[in-house]
Amino acid sequence: MHDLRMVREHIDALRAGMRRRGANDALSTIDRAAELDKWRRETIQAVEERKAARNAISQQVGQRKRGGEAADDLQQQSRALGEEIARLDQELAKVESQLSSILLELPNITLDQVPAGGEENNSVVRSWGTPREGARVQPHWEIGTRLGLIDFERGAKISGSGFIVFRGLGARLVRSLMNLMLDVHTGDHSYEEIWVPVVVNRTSMTGTAQLPKFEEDMYALKDEDLFLIPTAEVPLTNLYRDEILAEGDLPKSFTAYSACFRREAGAAGKDTRGLLRVHEFDKIELVRYTTPETSGEQLELLTGHAEKILQLLELPYRVVRLASGDTGFASAHTYDLESYAPGVGKWLEVSSCSNFTDFQARRANIRYKPTEGGKPRFVHTLNGSGLAFPRIIASLLEHHQQEDGSVRVPAALSKYLGAERLS
RNA sequence: GGACAGGUGGCCGAGUGGUUGAAGGCACCGGUCUCGAAAACCGGCAUACCGGUGAACCCGGUAUCGAGAGUUCGAAUCUCUCCCUGUCCGCCA
User: Fold this and answer.
1) Span CA (A212) to C1' (B56), Å
2) C1' of B26 to CA of A300 (Å)
3) Strand B nucleotides, any atom under 7 Å to a protein CB
4) Contact present, A416 and A176 (Cβ < 8 Å)
5) What is the pLDDT of residues A367-391, one digit of tens each?
6) Complex ipTM
7) In angstroms, what CA-CA distances link A406 with A42, A110, A134, A176, A420?
8) Cβ-based neighbours of A275, under 8 Å, separated by 6 or more
9) What whole-number distance in Å separates Cα of residue A130 and Cα of residue A254?
10) Which of A83, A274, A373, A423 is deepest in the core (most CB within 10 A)?
């Protein structure tokens, strides 16, 4: 969320930011916000003037009554003022709620190093490993089914398409990935491990900016105003909602495993086979809270932490800097990590690492008190997947597939899995 | 799910419908004292918004005592609804 002051004092920068994203529909709402803000300030002046008058009268009434005098005339005046105040306050409330909906639906402005334009302007900033030639590699759904690791049909029967049953060594593979990633992040990268609720309230969803704009993408509970999380980012970033941290406590870093739930409402018909796009999946998430001065370097650090997992899994990947128009709503700078899956012949997005600057912190009201004193400031929040399981499993099954149809398990993982080969 | 008891400033904790933004204490900041520190003493110490010249300082105003609505000239204080916390009971992995 942007500060209303952006609209008032830096409207050109705001407009430029929207244009760089290609969010041209936002330009007119910004103008609308500027008008509403002007009206709002005028009305505040009018209403506060009346409130001041009423307060003064009420004091006089009090004085008279204590002296045993009547004050009917003053009470009459005050009542009249009260009616005007009620009317103005009501209009004001309406305008302020319009203003806040506008602010809540404007995306973040991307940082300078993010190129303008859409997906076509994404750029690979580095890569690791060599993608394997895919001519003789089966897609993961065939391997997974053949080896008895994944039961797509029964998943669909129990829940619907896009819900996956892992079984036997496949189930153990999921558990192994969870343990490997959490151990690396808590041990080597010093994150605090958190276990989070996967059901959260509307305020939390609004804090991280899934709401109000993307409500149709969320699974919602029927009888209560609660949602299934699409990522552990939501509970982790809301951990310190409405709190003030000490600068000395920053950066704070958290990691959590969670199940994630996505309706994929806008993606019907895309990636329907296999593990590429599912409604429920597992993921390890990384979240960091930092000062504004350090969030840039902290994004590099966090991205490196996610990359480390891909290296341990011996999976070739590339790091892609997203162009402004492809960057998520709340993010100011995003790197996607893409792992190559030779069986399906695609680079799979297995992690998305973002610096949200103060965009989420302002919504969730997460601040810190500077060491040198002064008013609390908003923290910067960052997060990244470290990593998402289904596409990693797809990549593992395809990239490490052997001539004999079995799958080699990388050393870092076999320790957890208790097997060096899936066959 | 039922029955009680509560929700006040960074924390603890007073508060009779009328200078209560809110006593007192703790914490914190500045000062006196001290070789230095502690103790003691003195002083300061909420936030947001609107306005006053652009920034700073400052000044004026408005709002905020879990949230919202109501009663009243006037609400932390009275009424209603909701949320949360605690205790007990029931149910349950």
Assistant:
1) 38
2) 43
3) 10, 18-19, 47-51, 61-63, 69, 72-74
4) yes
5) 888 877 777 888 999 999 999 999 9
6) 0.86
7) 73, 45, 16, 18, 10
8) A140, A141, A144, A150, A164, A390, A391, A393, A394
9) 31
10) A274
